[in-house]
Backbone:
């Protein structure tokens, strides 16, 4: 039985990769047990993020802090330290090895199917082999990937594609993860069915861009082909779509989603990035319609939809007029959830060499202003639900107060949005309960279940 301590940094797609890697190791080694402290582990697995400079810094810091904690252990008690993911994929094993000698293994994104084999082989040198024998490099053809879920009983992410075919000037993802590679629809259906049989109630589709799924496959009409297989699955209470590229969210797709109905929730994550056309053009965003029109297109079909977006401030050449337009856009669009990020010039991207760099202090101030606008909008939206009865999916205990749990309404996605603090009859992890919203505070809600 392998004792494992894992850290997954960055986006949910990384977490899926971690879960599949650990699930495969479990099968290879004949068992795997998560532990609470890395000092107790046989394997410390760190799946890194390197999307932007702060993510790179966080990944390096976590690796070094982990190595420092393990350095005090006797050599025969020291776990294998395996570092995987985007940090290694972006900079390469050969470049990182001299700078991170603390890592026993450096695993690149391009060889993800062999991560379990490489880790298991390294563990064999430290631990006695366990049945079953053999080290498969990937799940057998026709079977869903094996996963060790880390999200509790209520929800799980389903990654439907790898890589990206867009060419945004600020983004390093295509160079890290490669071009678009869609997972076959049948395999995704089987993986989703397996998750549901494990008790999962909500499945969240993730990819770099959901709207391009199937563009590299024959015999599909894009995302609708996949949704037709997923929506009827027994036990599916909620299906949520994350990362919908604005140009791909056409009226035709919106009408399909409208007609599909539950368990699909009317929640749309649209990474718009800005509102000024000049800024969008320099970003290389491939949609000609302005974001005002994109939001209108969604709301014309889904008037009550919850919209989430991410914005970049301080992009090279962003003027005061551009920023004023962005503020007006946020006030008018009334997003339920908003993330704002100062521009980060990433090495190897076209945007890194653009002229007209906005000083960091101005970008930080613009972010502060936008988040202040959004705080007021979010407070108004949440206050409108006080007194209503809503379905709350319970994720986990709150920890400090007995009986109090953390859950989510249909308009709250895990980890990126606010929470609903819920208590009362029937409130246990994995339950879907009807509860009355009694209070709103900041980005969160308070609810009480029962009649």
Residues:
């Amino acid at each position: 039985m392998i004792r494992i301590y894992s850290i997954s940094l960055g986006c949910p797609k990384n977490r899926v990769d971690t879960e599949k890697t650990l699930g495969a190791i479990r099968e290879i080694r004949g068992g795997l047990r998560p532990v609470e402290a890395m000092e107790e582990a046989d394997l410390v697995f760190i799946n890194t993020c390197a999307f932007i400079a702060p993510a790179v810094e966080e990944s390096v810091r976590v690796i070094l802090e982990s190595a420092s904690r393990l350095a005090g252990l006797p050599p025969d008690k020291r776990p294998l330290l395996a570092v995987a993911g985007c940090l290694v994929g972006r900079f390469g094993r050969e470049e990182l090895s001299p700078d991170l000698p603390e890592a026993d293994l450096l695993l690149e994104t391009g060889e993800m199917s062999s991560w379990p084999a490489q880790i298991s082989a390294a563990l064999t040198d430290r631990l006695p082999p366990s049945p079953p024998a053999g080290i498969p490099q990937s799940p057998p053809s026709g079977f869903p990937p094996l996963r060790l879920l880390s999200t509790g009983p209520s929800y799980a992410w389903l990654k439907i594609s790898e890589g990206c075919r867009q060419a945004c000037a600020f983004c390093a993802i295509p160079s890290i993860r490669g071009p678009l590679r869609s997972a076959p629809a049948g395999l995704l259906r089987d993986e989703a069915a397996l998750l549901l049989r494990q008790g999962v109630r909500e499945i969240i589709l993730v990819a770099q861009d959901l709207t391009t799924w199937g563009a590299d496959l024959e015999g599909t009409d894009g995302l609708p082909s996949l949704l037709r297989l997923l929506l009827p699955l027994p036990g599916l209470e909620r299906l949520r779509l994350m990362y919908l590229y604005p140009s791909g969210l056409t009226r035709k797709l919106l009408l399909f989603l409208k007609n599909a109905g539950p368990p699909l929730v009317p929640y749309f994550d649209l990474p718009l990035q800005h509102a000024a056309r000049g800024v969008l053009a320099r970003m290389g965003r491939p949609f000609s319609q302005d974001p005002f029109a994109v939001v209108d297109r969604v709301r014309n079909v889904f008037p009550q939809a919850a919209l989430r977006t991410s914005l970049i401030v301080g992009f090279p050449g962003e003027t005061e007029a551009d920023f004023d337009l962005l503020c007006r856009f946020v006030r008018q669009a009334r997003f339920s959830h908003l993330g704002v990020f100062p521009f980060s010039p990433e090495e190897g991207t076209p945007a890194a060499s653009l002229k007209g760099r906005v000083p960091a202090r101005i970008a930080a101030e613009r972010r502060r202003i936008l988040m202040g606008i959004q705080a007021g909008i979010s407070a108004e939206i949440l206050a409108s639900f006080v007194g209503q009865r809503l379905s709350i999916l319970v994720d986990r205990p709150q920890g400090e107060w007995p009986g109090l749990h953390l859950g989510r309404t249909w308009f709250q996605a895990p980890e990126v949005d606010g929470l609903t603090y819920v208590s009362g009859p029937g409130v246990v992890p994995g339950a879907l309960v009807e509860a009355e919203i009694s209070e709103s505070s900041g980005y969160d809600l308070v609810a009480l279940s029962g009649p």
User: Anything to note?
Assistant: The chain has three domains: 2-124, 155-383, 389-449.
